[in-house]
Design brief:
The protein contains 16 helices and 23 strands. It has 495 residues and is an alpha/beta fold.
Length: 495
């Protein structure tokens, strides 16, 4: 599709902001709504249902009824597999529409909405569909007078609260394993980016997932999100978002019915480049490409770059030469590689961090300003700070924007110490030709994923999650089933 056609289709696309409960599109019971503005140019995309506790009650009731009567949970794994594979196929069929909704809603470049978000969403749903009839239960090695069966059962009603930076992918990471295991699901998308979640619910119904099994309640976190976290009939909640809200989710789970609560939270990932890096060009491309991908709005972005002093000048020369290609552009232009910040609130936050970096003495080598103001959208130039100290705010806190902090080291042990001196522990990387150093450093770094001589290596078969205040539990891989299933032991005495 040409750039002109993307704009034409955006102008005529009909968007439905109603909730999806028990197989039907409905407005909130209170009839309250909120406007959904695009970060691309400030246009109003339409009204969205402002779901609150009454609407959550309806969605949970529909999900519980569907679970209890077995319309989905009691289907054979092979039957659920067939439906989920069809669901994945339909995601690809409607890929252009979903990509356009994603770009209009949260500002990412259309080329990535198509090539990354749509494809990754379909792949995730397909993979869990394929996996579910290949997981075996266990027989314990008991004495001969007993038979102990260890089986997995769906946990029941699952709530999933997902963020705005990768709306479809984050939703798929949670709903795919939860649905594959036989659960009923209520998805609460971010109020900043609800459109693809609502469309996915319709596509799921078309694929054959029964009404009531997959529900979507748009709304604000302190209303719809809190109602789900506090609900006495929700058995499990999966959350991706900020550490601050993740802590609140855990508290609410404890205050209510002690529901299982799984959180994937913030990050401040360290990227360590040693002087013996085997491919300096690759290290530079990974460092710059990864921090500015998705406008820096990625929890795993390598926002702290540690470069060994002896190669610092050469590294920075190459890095600065790449910066002009990451200037923000029109997200509906297929050549654009960096788009808009999601909304005015996030823009203000990012600019506040940039101001803090300058005031604390870091040197801004590139960027540092808002751009494309004439569009009415929210755009920030790719920004690099040098001469950063680990005590600075930009080195300690998650910015969630296109801002890179560069630190220098002479001793790898000191670099690891500073890398670990963070409340986060999502991802990290080490670039070195020394295999022993790579292994020792990877073991020493307190992070859920450690990359060696690359960054952003990714596959649905590997778990994603972090240490410390980056959360608990893991998305992706077979390990995700641990979150959405119960282990039951059935002990049989043999007489």
């Amino acid at each position: 599709m040409t750039n002109k056609l993307w704009h034409e289709r955006a102008a005529t696309l009909k968007m439905d902001g109603r909730a999806f409960i028990d197989g039907q599109r409905v407005w909130a019971k209170s009839e309250q709504q909120f406007d959904n503005f695009s970060p691309i140019d400030g246009r109003n995309l339409g009204l969205v249902a402002r779901c609150q506790s009454d609407d959550v009650d309806l969605a949970v009731s529909a999900a519980r009824t569907a679970f209890n009567d077995g319309r989905w949970a009691s289907q054979a794994p092979a039957a659920r597999k067939r439906v989920l594979i069809k669901f994945a196929d339909l995601v690809l069929k409607y890929g252009d529409e979903l990509a356009l909704l994603e770009t209009l809603d949260m500002g990412k470049p259309i080329q990535y909405s198509l090539s990354v978000d749509v494809n990754s969403t379909a792949n995730c749903i397909r993979w869990y569909g394929e996996a579910i009839d290949k997981i075996y239960d266990e027989i314990a090695p008991t004495a001969s007078d007993s038979l102990a069966l260890i089986t997995r059962e769906a946990v029941g009603v699952v709530a999933a609260i997902v963020p705005w930076n990768y709306p479809m992918i984050m939703a798929a990471w949670k709903i795919a394993p939860a649905l594959a295991a036989g659960n009923s699901v209520i998805l609460k998308p971010s109020e900043k980016s609800p459109l693809t979640a609502l469309r996915l619910a319709e596509i799921a119904l078309e694929a054959g997932i029964p009404a009531g099994v997959f529900n979507v309640v748009p709304g604000y976190g302190h209303e719809a999100g809190a109602a789900l976290a506090l609900h006495m009939d929700v058995d499990c909640i999966g959350f991706t978002g900020s550490t601050k809200i993740g802590k609140q989710i855990l508290q609410m789970a404890g205050q209510s019915n002690l529901k299982r609560a799984w959180t994937e939270l913030g990050g401040k990932s360290a990227n360590i480049v040693c002087a013996d890096c085997p491919d300096l060009d690759a290290a530079v491309e990974a460092a710059i490409g990864s921090i500015y991908f998705n406008q820096g709005e990625s929890c795993n972005a390598p926002s702290r770059l540690f470069v060994e002093a002896s190669i610092k000048d050469k590294f920075m020369e190459k890095a600065l030469a790449m910066m002009p290609s990451f200037q923000p552009g029109d997200p509906l232009n297929e050549d654009t590689i960096m788009g808009a910040i999601v909304d005015a609130t996030q823009l203000k936050s990012v600019m506040g961090y940039i101001a803090a970096g300058k005031s604390e003495g870091a040197k801004c080598l590139f960027g540092g300003e808002q751009v494309r103001l004439e569009t009415g959208g929210y755009y920030v130039a790719p920004t690099i700070f040098d001469q950063v100290d680990s005590s600075m705010k930009i080195a300690r806190e998650e910015i969630f924007g296109p801002v890179l902090s560069v630190l220098t080291f002479t001793d790898i042990n000191e670099a690891v110490r500073q890398a670990n001196a963070s409340s986060f522990g999502l991802q990290a990387a080490i670039w070195t030709a020394d295999l022993s150093r790579a292994i020792k450093t990877a073991r020493a770094l307190r992070a859920g994923t450690v990359h060696v001589n690359q960054y952003d290596g990714d596959d649905i078969t590997v778990p994603f999650g972090g240490y410390k205040q980056s959360g608990n539990g893991r998305d992706k891989s077979l390990h995700a089933f641990d979150k959405y299933t119960e282990l039951k032991t059935t002990w049989i005495r043999i007489s």
